[in-house]
## 1
Amino acid sequence: MELVFENTADFQLTHIFDCGQCFRWNKEPDGSYTGVVMDKVVNAAFFPDEQDMYHGTLVLDNACEEDRFFWKDYFDLDRNYGAIQKALGQKDKVIREAMEQGKGIRILRQDPWETLISFIISQNNNIPRIKRGIESICSNFGSPTGIYREKEVYGVPGPEVLARLSVEDLSVCKLGYRAKYIIHTAKKVLEDGREKLNSMANLEETSFEEAFSYLSQFCGVGPKVANCILLFSMNRFSSFPVDVWMTRVMEELYGLSDKEKILSFVEERFGEFGGIAQQYLFYYIRQRHGNL
DNA sequence: TTCCAGGTGGCAT
DNA sequence: ATGCCACATGGA
């Protein structure tokens, strides 16, 4: 069955899925994407209007009507990205160009647990290997959630599964030294409860600083990874993860050399939408360096 | 062969 | 508090 979202605005599948925020979506030969989200497997296809290629109909195959809210929430469809782009566009020429390249990016509202382990794996690693590592964790230790287009699909194993594993068990996933971080983290999430982790996404209950310092307690989570988790799964749109690409782009395009300068500049320049600006810039610089 | 990838933990000052 | 550096793995 199909789920259809008409009049979807400011939307571009490639820019959404290839901007480094998610790792379980893969492009199909027809340009659509197939992905796994919380034990649900869907294929996303976008049919743009003739006048505006960023506006059109989003069709999710293998999704049902009762999950309409879930997917609307996941794709952040209620947020007006056009207005955000307009506001950011007032700031400077650099961000305007970056937005032109990455137009249609949306911040997906992902599961905190999946995002936590995904970005622990991301450290000192590259995107194709991150994807392989996560896929390997799922196929080796996750539960099968069904078959889609002749392929068996597996969900992300919960903390109760990963906490029982040894470093040797995880060695098949080729995570390198990060395997022990994953096990440590799974044990802590299991102790604290997954609800505690999820509660960090609640803006009324938890402040940014509280959520940041809670995440920082996990082994393998430093400031960069914590900011990714806050941005990609916890509704914190001001968080601005600084990785090697971000130091590169801020040096090349804004002449900013160190991390402290970058962060104070970004806060002043982009404010509450720093994270969204970061996504445009990330996509932009990787494109410029031929990484896409 | 060496360098690099969505960095961080551990240790020495 | 700050500055190094090792860390697994595989692609260029």
## 2
Amino acid sequence: MPELPEVETIARTLAPQIEGRVITAVHILNPGSLAAGHDLLPLLTGARIERAHRRAKLLLVSARARSEELLLVFHLKMTGSFFVHPAGTEPLTHTRLIFDLEGGAEARTAPGNDKEIGTTTGKARTSQPDAARSTAPDAGQRLFFDDTRKFGWCRILRPADLAAWDFWAGLGPEPLEASVEDLARHLGGVFRGKSRAVKAALLDQTVVAGIGNIYADESLFKAGIAPQCPCGGISEKKLLALAGAVQSVLGQSIRECGSSIRDYRDARGNAGAFQNNFAVYGRKGQTCQACGRALKDCRVAGRSTVYCPTCQK
DNA sequence: AGCGGGACCTGTGGGC
DNA sequence: TGCCCACAGGTCCCGC
């Protein structure tokens, strides 16, 4: 469920809490959650975190270890989340990795200092212990990587490892970093002559990065394209509509701090609000906002899919 | 080439 | 009330 907007929101809320801090220890509570880079753990201890940002659905944390740079690459899959707790906080039920941090960062976990990404509307709330929100500026902290279903992972990599990593190298373009016309042209090029269902292509991270089940369904509805429609049969006009829909849906979701179905929280424990805007996702059997007829569900590329048979052709 | 299905996980919720 | 089972989801991998 953390797709592009959720990971972006997590990166924006996490960065001010950890940038500049030094990693003093790493605790691996679930060995499967550290997918690569065990050999770099000794180097990571003592490294200073420089930056936390997003690419596709990956959260990247760069750290300076003596003379070289290391990267912590996280995939949150469905249930991964981050939260910064005060030093001494015990692991929670689903805590998989803990990074002990010390010094450097300003105290930005205090209440009332959450303004940099705008305020979430609707049912935003915290689900974390109050103690985590009143940490003293220079006290040590613990970055928790929690992951209920253990699908998520962290890789510790050198920049060269990242460049050589097939998954990374194969990622498609960032959908929000191109003009609508360029994105439409890119999709048109990839789609040309293909019989593959358009939704399957949108979910393919090598086609375009960051889209998951929620935003694929929402974008296709907004563009008026049926999810089963073969890629190659989409007109240029519809491609432009699809590119515009992808950008508008992702952009609006980022502005609303992502979608919280049940698990997702940002790095301050706040829920997103974009789920209140869903036109189709999770609305099987309910009425279409545009035509008033019932929304249908089906499976495309093995994923549950909801669409309007009238509005999407 | 691209799809289906299984595997990886666990909490939730519907049905009985 | 309690049990069972389907389901959710991203990615990889295997087989067709």
